[in-house]
Design a protein that fits this description.
This protein has about 350 residues and is mainly alpha-helical. The protein has helices at about 1-40, 55-65, 75-90, 120-140, 145-175, 180-185, 195-200, 200-215, 225-230, 240-265, 275-285, 285-315, 325-350; strands at about 100-105, 105-110. It has one domain (about 1-350). Strand 1 and strand 2 (about 105-110) form a beta hairpin. NDH-1 is composed of 14 different subunits. Subunits NuoA, H, J, K, L, M, N constitute the membrane sector of the complex.
Length: about 350
């Protein structure tokens, strides 16, 4: 039975990658629609009904654009930069549990690409590698604005990864595991959905979501591509699909960050009254069918949470102005890192005195 299980898991990995690409593609459409709504104007309405085919039109435009290489650019690294950014973004989605499991006879299929017991470290490490794609692309462009954008991206990621890592340490102290699946299951208590980590770690969640904005280079932390100062930042010299890879990588990173926050703090595929519903369905449908239905509803629940966070990312972009660079650095080093250290000490004290488990 090993081969069929491996085959199913390979299919799950392909589906996860496909969903990541699809969400990244249509995030560009959602961005325009949400921006139009917040600014009280008409959004995309030309390509297809309600502009639904606009992402496909954008993809065709990017694929058919002329390839451009700046004079003096390192051609190999110029191409490698956006490819690395895209690959690392996709790799991060492989360990996220999008559902519990489906059972067909004796075959059990976990709705997770890869289950590793260091899933949290894996995501943190792979996402950290994404900055190399930006640095390589900015340096290989032979453009001073691109180089400045790459330097900003590197310093920004290093600064905010420290606070993000400390926020994760607090979750690790409570859960005792680095497995994203185990962390999700630990937030699943019959009849008590308020056991989600957001109740136990509100400070850690605030730190994490602020750092997520900085790690994904989203407004108000989009200094690496600040148009008012750096023209376009690290991708100033990029065109065609190489530019598209950088844009897709950013949206995939937003999707991954939203998924990680849903798993770590909002129960992942858990939803209120799932055990009561499962027991009710088991009386008429059988235990296996009831569990499969609950798993499917869990997938719907986790994507509702993910899409809510993606909406929040876009809402903030069209609401807040970007920080100055000195403000960005000061927030990371003098506010978030001390706050994260305080949160670790507070979490340790609460665990020691049995207030939280």
């Amino acid at each position: 039975m090993e081969l069929p299980v491996l085959g199913w898991q390979a299919l799950v990995i392909l589906v996860v990658f496909g969903i990541s690409l699809l969400i990244a593609t249509y995030s560009t459409y959602a961005e325009r629609v949400i921006a139009a709504f917040l600014q009280d104007r008409v959004g995309p309405d030309r390509a297809g009904p309600f502009g639904i085919l606009q992402p496909l039109a954008d993809a065709v435009k990017l694929f058919t654009k002329e390839e451009f290489f700046p004079a003096g650019a390192n051609r190999a690294l110029f191409v490698f930069g956006p490819c690395l950014a895209m690959v690392t973004a996709l790799m991060a989605s492989a360990v996220i549990p999008f559902g519990n499991y489906l059972q067909f006879g004796t075959t059990i299929i976990h709705l997770q690409g890869i289950e590793v017991n260091i899933g949290m470290l894996y995501v943190f490490g792979v996402v950290s590698l994404g900055v190399y794609g930006i640095m390589i692309g900015g340096w290989a462009s032979n453009n001073k604005f691109s180089l400045l954008g790459a330097i900003r991206a590197a310093s920004q990621n290093i600064s905010y990864e420290l606070a993000m890592g400390m926020a994760l340490i607090a979750v690790l102290m409570m859960s005792g595991t680095l497995s994203l699946r185990e962390i999700t299951l630990q937030q699943s208590v019959p009849g008590e959905w308020h056991f989600w980590n957001i109740v136990k770690q509100p400070i850690g969640f605030i730190i994490f979501i602020v750092c997520a904005f900085a790690e994904t280079n989203r407004t108000p932390f989009d200094l690496p591509e600040c148009e008012t100062e750096l023209v376009g930042g690290y991708h100033t010299e990029y065109s065609s699909m190489k530019m598209g890879l950088y844009l897709f990588a950013e949206y995939i990173n937003v999707f991954v960050a939203s998924a990680v926050m849903s798993v770590l703090y909002f129960g992942g595929f858990n939803f209120p009254f799932q055990y009561e519903l499962r027991d009710f369905l088991a009386q008429s449908q059988g235990a296996v069918t009831a569990q499969n239905i609950i798993t499917i509803l869990g997938v719907v629940a986790v994507f509702i949470k993910i899409f809510s966070f993606i909406f929040f990312f876009m809402w903030v972009r069209w609401t807040l102005p970007r920080f100055r660079y000195d403000q960005l650095m000061r927030l990371g080093w003098t506010i978030l890192i001390p706050l994260a250290i305080f949160n670790i000490i507070l979490t340790g004290g609460l665990i020691l005195f049995g207030v939280i488990q």
